Amino acid sequence: MYQLLNDLSIVEVSSFVASPTAGLYCAQMGAEVIRVDHVAGGLDYDRFMLTEEGRSLSWENLNRAKKSVALDLRSGEGRELCAQLAGQTGQCITNLPERSFLGHAAMQAHRPDNRTDMISVRIMGWHDGRQAMDFTVNAASGYPLMGGPEDWDPDTAPPVNQILPAWDFITGAYCAFALMAALRHRDATGEGSELRVPLGDVAIGTVANSGMMAEMLYRGGDRERLGNAIWGAFGRDFRSKDGVRFMVAALTAKQWAGLVEAFNLGEAIGSLEKELGVDFSAGDEPRFTHRHRLFDLFQNVASGLKYAKLEKRMAAAGTTFEKYRTAHEAAQDPQLVGDNPLFGPSPANPSGFGYPAPRSFANIPEREAGDPAPAPYLGQHSEEVLAERLGLGSGSIGDLIDRGIVRTSDKNNR
Fold it and tell me: What Å distances lie between residue 414 and 41, 198, 402, CA to CA?
């Protein structure tokens, strides 16, 4: 954790992926992120997969470096405490509906000295109020119907869903950015901001930003399926003599020249250029247009060489490539994880299971990143936060605990 945001406190009332991701990124940069959940845990508290002790590994990793407050959010008193905590803090990230106990106005009402500087970032479904999740938003984006082998019939071929909830993670990152923009604006003007970020808008807006929407409208139809080929450039998966699958990409002249050198295809490429009347070093267009002829040349070479030799040649030529790994292999890979300074130990996980945990993705030279912080136990910081943020005395907090409005750590109650 870096301490760039150590003067910032944020209340997070959220579940699943996008909203917790926004808080996580802020926490990794030093912000105090106070996650508020229902006393039994939020909707994602028991999200698969669970350890033998019943701890969610998903929840554990999306909530590192945060504090946890557990309130009875089904009771009026617990909801009021949550709104008060958000208002007193001044910054809140949530995916609860605006028409809920945690609406922007409800939080704003608790700002000290009647200030109108509350900042809330609210993740929504679609802009028109419909519900959405990453998996349904992705179906609407057009991408799943572009996946799959080239020879699939476009009228009958099934969609290919992505495994990674990319729209959730992009939305979480965008919300962290939006919060920083609102904070900068408040510092300059004293004004608060209510920011609503629909997950669906992030998806369709990203489609537009990528140029794909303009492309579809310009061409008057859909893009063809390409299998594992890279759209508009040279790149695909190949298979070595010993059955190792690997991906190559050549988007620049240097990458292309290195790939031709590594595969010793200079003469064959030259002959193909003369036959077709093109110059493959001129850019992406000729390489993509004639990709099938090129793929055959590269696969013929790959089929005659073991991967270890290919890897050595590709590395020496400065090409861009990677061997395909299973997720289990990737988790144990020395280059990706074991020797990567991104990762550090996480010995204090609530699950009791120790494994590498990531630090901030950003590196700050000459600053110590520190070890990754563990996730909290549900309700671990309830008493601390209520005392510090709302000024409640031990007697008041004890009464709330006795009546089930507040829950303390579930460390020994799982």
Answer: 11, 35, 19
